[in-house]
Structure formats: structure tokens, C-alpha cells
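Moderator note: this is an archived Q&A kept for reference. The question asked for a predicted structure of one protein chain; the sequence and the answer are reproduced below.
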Amino acid sequence: MGIVETIGETAGQVWEFLKQHGRCSLNAVKLGVPATKSQVDMAIGWLAREGKIDLSQEKRSLQIWLKEG
């Protein structure tokens, strides 16, 4: 499997994790998704670019959640 396919698969895992857990910190997502930290970072970028997630910096924590609709 190529890197783009791996990132796409990881994006799906991140999406499923957020669907099950709701709003989470970046650290929680990295701990909960079975992929490398860099793959999770790239997957989050992928989802953000596609407009599927929202992000917010809250103090020292980056919060991530699925967009409605």
C-alpha cells in the first residue's frame, strides 16, 4: 500500500474514532487510532482540507471534532 492510500485509510480511522468519541484532543486521537503519530497528523490535515472536521486551539490542547452535516 502506498503512502497516499495509508493516509486515506488512517483518515477513515480518525473519522470513525471521532464519530464514536465526539470532540477530542489531538493527543487522544493519536492514542486511540492504530497508526503512527505522523500518519494521524497527515490524516487530520486530509480531513480538515476536505472540510470534514473542525479544529480549535484551547490553551495547550488542540481539539478536533466532526463537522455537522
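Archived answer notes: Residues 3-66 form a domain with the Arc Repressor Mutant, subunit A fold (CATH 1.10.10.10).
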